[in-house]
What we know:
This protein is an alpha+beta fold. It is built from five helices and eight strands, in the order αββββββββαααα. It has helices spanning 2-33, 134-142, 144-191, 193-205, 209-241, and strands spanning 40-47, 50-57, 64-73, 76-87, 93-98, 106-113, 117-120, 125-126. β3 (64-73) and β4 (76-87) form a beta hairpin. The chain is rod-shaped and about 235 Å long.
Amino acid sequence: MPQTRRNARRSVRVLGVASASVALALGVAGNALACDISEFSAEATCDGSKGVIVVTDKDATKTPAIITVFLENNGADVKQIGKQNIKGSREGTTVTFAEDWKPNAIYRVHVKAGNQVDEDITPNLTTPSTACGTEDSATPTTAAPETSKPSDSTSAPAESATPAESATPSAEPSESASDSTGTTPEGTSSNAPSPAAGDSNLAETGANSNTGVIAGIAAALVAVGAGAVFYGMRRRGAGSGR
């Protein structure tokens, strides 16, 4: 009897230890398979030029969850951005909220997964310091398209200078014409008076061809007169001698 009781007590102890071990193992396994908030994450990214908030669920148990996103201001909800259902996976399942977020904005992301999770993803989501589409919008403005305006403004004076240059040659022919017309009268006036002056000088000095004829006639008349005088004197001398 004493040995039988001892064996029974040992058997009970062994069963108790085994049951406790199984219960502990089941508890650990249950906790390992349960959905946990650490399996959820949120990120603010860009879809082209628009902002989006992406929430990822890596719950291997695929427990259905509800994701709700709120815009925060000074620790209070400003507005609800949206609410979506999600079922996670070991690789990760994502849901996207279209939100044109501002730089350094804060969002609260709440997760509700059955009776296992009902809390926020911590810390709250803070958006990047650069908004979406900033680089794309900056490209056209530096663009060069605007730098074409100074080139137009600089080309305008060049075009206006062209008529000025063309006006200059038009003025030059007038000056040359005036010079040519000015020099021509001077040349002709300097040359024309010289023969006129020569003619007047020749007329005054008697060097003209008509002057010689007149001088010859005058000399002939003087000779005839002298002969007549001489002849008359002889006749008078002869008359007085008789």
